[in-house]
Write a structure and sequence with these properties.
12% strand; alpha+beta
Length: 107
């Protein structure tokens, strides 16, 4: 595969556009960071587990689905609660797990 110079320039431009639109809106306290990190990791683990569990394993599959529903509710409740408490602007937020910050990616 041959890489053209224009492809590299486009990738660099996209990177800088994304990097420049990144706006930190909150630095998380340790307790809040650990809570959302644990919920995120659990949610991803359950999503992966449900992909590999055979639906023939009724009890295990049902438990995973139930746990996933509860975890997703807690995950969404965390975001809703923090949004209301801190009155965050924007709509497209994510947790930067390296810096323990909430980042807004709205243009």
């Amino acid at each position: 595969m041959q890489v053209r110079t224009s492809d590299i320039i486009n990738i660099k431009n996209d990177f800088w556009r994304i990097a420049m639109s990144r706006r930190v809106i909150e630095s998380l306290e340790k307790e809040d960071f650990e809570k959302i990190r644990n919920l995120f990791e659990r949610k991803i683990a359950l999503e992966n587990l449900m992909k590999i569990i055979s639906k023939d394993m009724d009890h295990l599959y049902e438990k995973a689905v139930k746990d996933y529903g509860e975890t997703t509710r807690e995950f969404n409740d965390w975001w809703d609660g923090k949004t209301k408490k801190y009155k965050w602007n924007g709509e497209n937020w994510y947790v930067d797990f390296q810096t323990q910050e909430i980042v807004c990616m709205d243009a």
